[in-house]
């Protein structure tokens, strides 16, 4: 979900076949079911005639069809049969369901409360009409033609030093090694700079502050060619320097992330742990990994941040070696999220990172096993 407005986008990106392949591997669904509904229609849940009229107008412009349900109960029979669910601003509560709506659609008069309402409903984005009708038509056109969009995977550490940044770097490197067009995003302006972890301070390309004044749509070729690369993947980092860096506003962040979705197949975000970073980045994720240490009390204490995360699938990565009968499944059950896999502490990681050889550690069996679990690399042709 973007809490930052309605950026304009264009329909360019990975093909529908590529999107289905990646979605299948990352979600566990068969390729023919991943990333699309069973009939390609849109379900619009609203009793507001003005919203219905404008959504149907946008759909007609791109040849899409819309099923309208006046209330959530009526909508349930079609909820899982369509490509995307759209909810009007007159809907304030939803019954138990299998997936969150893609869009909350409001009107100018609804004001800024729409973003809080979207968070409550679990909607991924907010669209304000009539200003956003062109964006809505483009969105519906992309979905209706099965145009590709990247899978966005976020990583959050339960505490500092748990290795979220390191794990994100390894996943990006091994994803690229498997032939996936991958972007690694630094979500923490106070974290010292992802480029330092990658020993890529001198790599040519733009960093976050260079996007501070960017407005509107960013072209896919423009983004891909402007970013630095290392280890086979592109990365977008905050500068790794002692000097203060200027802030990048919410609209610019949203525009960059929207372009990233259209440009790459896999976007990995090292989110950071502050409330601001969660707001800026976690809401754009399709899936989140919560990395926790092998200490039950520490994990439970840190799990309070889970309440701040958006309603997207979140699972536990158990960091370190189990001890005293404690393993990942026990910690996952205690904090209330599914257990994804374990990533043991790997001897020499700190010294390799200090020497600029962090990506070399990704060759080790434990790291490749971790990446295979998270990214389903075997299913995606990984080596």
Biggest sheet details:
8 strands, mixed
What percent of residues adopt helix (DSSP H or I)? 25-40%
Number of strands: 13
Radius of gyration: 21 Å
Task: Write down the overall geometry.
Answer: globular
The topology string of helices and strands comes to HEHEHEEHEHEHEHHEEHEHEHEHEHH
Structural class: alpha/beta
What is the arithmetic mean of pLDDT?
Answer: 81
| Residue fraction in strands | 15-25%
Compact overview of the structure:
This protein has 383 residues and is an alpha/beta fold. It is 34% helix and 16% strand.
Describe this structure in words.
Helix 8 crosses helix 9. It is built from 14 helices and 13 strands. The protein is of the alpha/beta class and 383 residues long. The relative contact order is 0.14. It has helices spanning 16-27, 49-62, 72-75, 113-121, 133-144, 164-177, 194-197, 220-226, 250-263, 275-281, 296-302, 328-335, 349-354, 365-375, and strands spanning 42-45, 66-69, 84-88, 103-107, 125-129, 151-157, 182-186, 229-230, 233-236, 266-270, 287-292, 314-319, 339-343. An eight-stranded mixed β-sheet has the order 8-9-7-10-6-11-12-13, sandwiched between helices. The protein has a five-stranded parallel β-sheet with strand order 2-1-3-4-5, with helices on both faces. Helix 11 links the parallel strand 11 and strand 12 (314-319).
Keywords:
single chain; 383 residues; five-stranded parallel sheet; disordered N terminus; eight-stranded mixed sheet; alpha/beta; 14 helices
Secondary-structure map:
Blueprint: H1 16-27, E1 42-45, H2 49-62, E2 66-69, H3 72-75, E3 84-88, E4 103-107, H4 113-121, E5 125-129, H5 133-144, E6 151-157, H6 164-177, E7 182-186, H7 194-197, H8 220-226, E8 229-230, E9 233-236, H9 250-263, E10 266-270, H10 275-281, E11 287-292, H11 296-302, E12 314-319, H12 328-335, E13 339-343, H13 349-354, H14 365-375
Parallel strand pairs: 1-2, 1-3, 3-4, 4-5, 6-10, 6-11, 7-9, 7-10, 11-12, 12-13
Antiparallel strand pairs: 8-9
Helix pairs in contact: 2-5, 6-14, 8-9
């Amino acid at each position: 979900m973007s809490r930052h407005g309605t950026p304009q986008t264009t329909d360019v990106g990975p093909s529908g076949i590529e999107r289905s392949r990646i979605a299948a591997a990352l979600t566990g669904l068969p390729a023919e079911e991943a990333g699309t509904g069973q009939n390609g229609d849109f379900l619009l849940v609203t009793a507001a005639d003005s919203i219905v009229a404008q959504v149907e107008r946008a759909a007609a412009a791109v040849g899409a069809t819309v099923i309208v349900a006046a209330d959530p109960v009526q909508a349930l029979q079609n909820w899982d049969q369509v490509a995307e669910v759209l909810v009007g601003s007159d809907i304030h509560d939803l019954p138990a369901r299998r997936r969150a709506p893609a869009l909350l659609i409001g009107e100018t008069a609804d004001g800024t409360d729409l973003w809080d309402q979207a968070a409550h409903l679990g909607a991924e984005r907010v669209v304000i009409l009539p200003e956003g009708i062109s964006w809505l038509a483009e969105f519906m056109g992309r979905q209706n033609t099965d145009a590709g969009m990247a899978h966005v995977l976020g990583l959050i550490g339960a505490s500092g030093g748990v290795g979220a940044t390191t794990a994100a770097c390894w996943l990006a490197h091994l994803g690229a090694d498997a032939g996936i067009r991958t972007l690694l995003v630094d979500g923490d302006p106070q974290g010292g700079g992802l480029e330092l972890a990658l020993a890529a301070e001198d790599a040519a390309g733009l960093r976050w502050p260079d996007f501070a004044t960017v407005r509107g749509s960013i072209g896919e070729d423009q983004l891909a060619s402007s970013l630095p690369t290392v280890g086979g993947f592109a990365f977008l980092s905050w500068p790794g320097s002692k000097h203060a860096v200027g802030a990048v506003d919410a609209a610019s962040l949203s525009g960059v992330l929207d372009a990233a979705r259209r440009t790459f197949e896999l976007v990995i975000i090292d989110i950071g742990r502050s409330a601001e970073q969660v707001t800026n980045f976690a809401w754009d994720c399709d899936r989140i990994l919560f990395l926790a240490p092998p200490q039950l009390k520490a994990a439970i204490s840190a799990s309070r941040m889970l309440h701040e995360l958006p309603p997207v699938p979140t699972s536990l990565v158990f960091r370190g070696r189990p001890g005293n009968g404690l393993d990942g499944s026990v910690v996952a059950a205690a904090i209330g999220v599914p257990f994804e896999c374990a990533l043991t502490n790997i001897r020499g990681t700190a010294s390799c990172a200090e020497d600029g050889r962090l990506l070399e550690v990704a060759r080790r069996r434990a790291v490749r096993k971790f990446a295979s679990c998270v990214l389903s690399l075997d299913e995606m042709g990984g080596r």
